[in-house]
Amino acid sequence: MTSSNASWVCLLLLCFAAMGDAEYMKYKDPKQPINTRINDLIGRMTLAEKIGQMTQIERDVASADVMKKYFIGSILSGGGSVPAPQATPSIWVNMVNEFQKGALSTRLGIPMIYGIDAVHGNNNVYNATLFPHNIGLGATRDPDLVKRIGEATALEVRATGIQYTFAPCIAVCRDPRWGRCYESYSEDHTIVQQMTDIILGLQGEIPVNHTKGVPYVAGKDKVAACAKHFVGDGGTHNGINENNTIIDEHGLLSIHMPPYYDSIIKGVATIMVSYSSLNGVKMHANHALVTGYLKSKLHFRGFVISDWLGIDRITSPPGANYTYSVQAGINAGIDMVMVPYNYTDYIGDLTSLVSKGIVNMSRIDDAVRRILRVKFAMGLFENPLADLSFADQLGKKEHRELAREAVRKSLVLLKNGNSPNQQFLPLPKKARRILVAGSHASNLGYQCGGWSIQWMGGSGDITTGTTILDAIKSTVVDSTSVVYAENPDDSFMNHNDFSFAIVVVGEPPYSETVGDSTNLTILDPGPDTIRTVCSAVKCAVVVVSGRPVVIEPYVPLMEALVAAWLPGTEGQGVADVLFGDYGFTGKLPRTWFKSVDQLPMNVGDPHYDPLYPFGFGLTINSSLPGFSGADNVGDTRQRLIYVSLCSLLSLALINDLGIRVFQHPAALLF
Ligand code: BGC
Ligand code: BGC
Question: Which leading EC class covers this enzyme (predicted)?
Fold first, then answer.
């Protein structure tokens, strides 16, 4: 080759290289380190594109065009917000993909992330497996079970094409009058801390050498999680939802904060801010805690999301000064705002706040970096579109078996006969004629509670599952006749001769503020049903409720009492244990009060005088003749001593941890 030829070749190569350079976008290269990709992408983004990333809108107002026009970074389904009633996975996947294509058609093609409240399974979705609500999981004391529930939930969320869940709620509920108490695993923060293992199930097991504070989501079969609601949501005054948590620094750091340490260590991708106030300051405007503590001190590197209309509620009445809400919320450190409807106001206000210098560009960049970090970490750029490969995960048999196991382990036996030698449970499968009664015996909606198909939950056959009545019928032998009467009267009882009765009563479904209650009574005519049935025949009472309820007046009437919490779709788990195929292992995750005027009353309080203490839960003495139950812990007195010792021990642990946490807040992390 002559030298002039050689120079031509060189020039051509240079040209090709230059052309290659123009097309090579570092942020699109999965081989690049995540920080390189973030820096590259952020360097290319306009303010409008950045603010779009910080915007989450409801599916109701979303479309491919809106995604494209406003560069929207995220969509959510609110409670009960579905593409069609009883929508199949393919309807869900098509909807999500349609929105995603809008996002991908933008200049930079940044994928959106779709979030949903999968708080006890993928609970808005017809046919999904609905697991017990958190309070029931707290009763199991079984973090490994909860992790497996996280894995199953991730698959059922992916079945609908969704990549993000607003779970777990890691509230430490300190007052059962709070309408969200069932979303809390326990009044004891150590139990809530253990249950954050659900994050490992949802997002995947975090590698040992993973940098603390950096979000971790393993891949296509996992979802981004959201620890909520930061912080003190379970400590509001008198249990009033979204109200004020009055607490000193020690109390905050030793009771409500610890589950956040665990969640961050486990790589949680996002954290949602609480509607509540802390000592009078709205958490959505709390710079000291959101930026100062969560981001700076705890080194949380995922994104902080607002709650639904959460910034609007910074002012009273909500939305009174939306521009101020945006300013206060974003400057407090919120990265993504769950708007969820009026996104043009939000985008307009934030844009002008930035142009006026009231919100700094560095704040915007911090927010966008965090959002992109989550999207890159979970492989969303590589796999933005869903397919139907997970469709058969929805409500599949193995998941229902897992939910049934969880139901069995969540049941807490509070009374069993009048002495250890006269146990009433387990019930015999072979009997002549048994009665099943009560408002909650044959009502799938009631046993699922709130956040089930609808935001508020519903009554009756809201989805597929097994009611407690169906479960009882399929557990007893064929020759046992099962009579169902929802609310039998005296004459019905007098004209029938039953071997025994099972009465299933409880609370109606509710969510959030609607669930706030000052009387904590069960649904009428529950008390009458108990009185009528249990005065006529020996009965076991099963309480289906999101929290301890007023029960003391009726306890003397019944032979046995079981707390079943909100078991979800797999009612078979209740019958498994009632009839002795499995033993009772659940322990109270909360103190069971005698009367509401004792509230708030938590384990360790000076005025502690419960009906059943925190940690209480009888087991069945299987050594007695005629019983097939699984456990044998000894007589009631021994058990009570054992339970009190455990409570004392856990108190000592709480105190110990409390002091350590107080002295070295971040020491647990690094
Ligand atoms: C939505 C819920 C949301 C609630 C907030 C409802 O309309 O469906 O997802 O939590 O509003 O008030
Ligand atoms: C609730 C959140 C929920 C959000 C979206 C709010 O009302 O407080 O827990 O994630 O709605 O449905």
Answer: hydrolase
Query: Which whole number is the average pLDDT over 382-399?
Result: 98
Query: Which residue segment(s) compose the domain that 65 sits in?
Result: 45-378
Domain count, the chain: 2
Mean pLDDT, rounded, for 327-331: 99
Q: State how far the Cα of 139 lies from the Cα of 551, in Å rounded to an integer.
A: 18
- Domain of 367: which CATH number? 3.20.20.300
Instruction: Please state, in angstroms and rounded to a whole number, the distance separating the CA atoms of residues 449 and 441.
Output: 14
**Within this chain, do residues 232 and 152 fall inside the same structural domain, yes or no?**
yes
Tokens coding 657: 């941890």
Q: Are 590 and 548 in contact (CB under 8 A)?
A: yes
Instruction: Give yes or no for residue 455 CB within 6 A of ligand 1.
Output: yes
Which ligand 1 atom sits closest to the C-alpha of 511?
A: 10
Distance 309 CA to ligand 1 centre (A): 9
Residues 76 and 166 grouped into a single domain: yes
Does a structural domain hold residue 635?
no
Last residue of a domain, one of 612, 644, 663: 612
Examine residue 8 and state whether it is found in any structural domain, yes or no: no
> What is the b/e burial string over 525-562, where b = at least 16 CB atoms within 10 angstroms of the residue's CB?
ebbebbbbbbebbbbbbbbbbbbbbbbeebeebbbbbb
Q: In angstroms, what is the span from residue 40 Cα to ligand 1's centroid?
A: 37
Task: Say whether both 354 and 457 belong to one domain.
Answer: no
Tens digit of pLDDT for each residue in 509-560? 999 999 999 999 999 999 999 999 999 999 999 999 999 999 999 999 999 9
Q: Dump pLDDT digits (tens) for 1-59.
A: 444 455 554 444 444 444 545 579 999 999 999 999 999 999 999 999 999 999 999 99
Please report the sign of the dihedral spanned by the C-alpha atoms of residue 51, residue 264, residue 174, residue 658: negative
Instruction: Specify the pairing of strand 270-273 against strand 226-230.
Output: parallel
pLDDT of 281-293, one tens digit each? 999 999 999 999 9
Which of 378, 403, 435 finishes a domain? 378
Q: Mean pLDDT throughout 455-477? A: 98
Please tell me if the CB atom of residue 80 comes closer than 6 angstroms to any atom of ligand 1: yes
**Closest ligand relative to 341 C-alpha:** 1
The H or E element containing residue 483 is strand 481-485
Q: CA nearest 384: which of 141, 643, 93?
A: 93
Q: Which residue has the tokens 């979705």?
A: 125
Say yes or no: 486 and 596 in one domain.
Answer: yes
Cβ of 85: how many Cβ atoms within 10 Å?
Answer: 7
What average pLDDT does the structure give for the chain? 92
* Residue 451 near ligand 1, beta carbon < 6 Å: no
Q: Which residues line ligand 2 (CB under 6 A)?
A: 78-79, 117, 166, 228, 307-308, 512
**Which tokens in the block code for residue 347?**
């985008």
